[in-house]
Amino acid sequence: MPPKFKRHLNDDDVTGSVKSERRNLLEDDSDEEEDFFLRGPSGPRFGPRNDKIKHVQNQVDEVIDVMQENITKVIERGERLDELQDKSESLSDNATAFSNRSKQLRRQMWWRGCQIKAVMALAAGILLLVIIILIVMKYRT
After folding, report:
1. Is 100 a member of any domain?
2. What is the pLDDT of residue 40?
3. What total number of domains does the chain contain?
4. Which of 30, 57, 90, 121 has the CB geometry, 3.0–4.6 Å to 34, for a possible disulfide?
5. CA–CA gap between residue 81 and residue 76 (Å, rounded)
6. Where are the alpha helices (DSSP H) in the chain?
7. C-alpha distances in Å from residue 39, one per residue of 35, 45, 89
């Protein structure tokens, strides 16, 4: 049968386990790097080492500021690209609509030209017919 575990731990159980784990981690065989991360920096608060840390921290802060500015610029650039893409899609749609409308108008104008030519030909035919009839009537009499 599997062992039963406590479902609810009180604060003493948790605190005791954390302290014992920390004590086990900080035994004599641990190196300086582990001690630094578990205990924090040790040594004098002022001096050349602290100045180096401040200098490095300032550099890190500057890099963070530059990166935040870069991220802001990239986001703004992305927004501008989205707007540009929307405008280009709109322009493409308008160009397609213009092309279709121009083809339709060209066909209408061609038919209108054909109608005008047909009316002119009909008028010329009627005029020619009237002239021929007048000439024929003049010679008959």
Report:
1. yes
2. 57
3. 1
4. 30
5. 9
6. 11-25, 32-39, 48-140
7. 6, 15, 59
Once rounded to an integer, what is the mean pLDDT over residues 48-75? Answer: 91
Angle subtended at Cα 111 by Cα 107 and Cα 119, rounded to the nearest 5 degrees: 165
Q: Based on C-alpha coordinates, what's the Rg of the chain?
A: 47
- Average pLDDT (113-129) is 96
11 in a structural domain = no
For residue 26, give the 3-state DSSP assignment: coil
Q: Whole-angstrom Cα distance, residue 17 to residue 98?
A: 77
User: What is the distance of C-alpha 60 from the center of its chain?
Assistant: 30
Does pLDDT of 13 surpass 90? Answer: no
Domain interval for residue 102: 17-140
- Check if the beta carbon of residue 26 is closer than 8 Å to that of residue 35: yes
pTM: 0.43
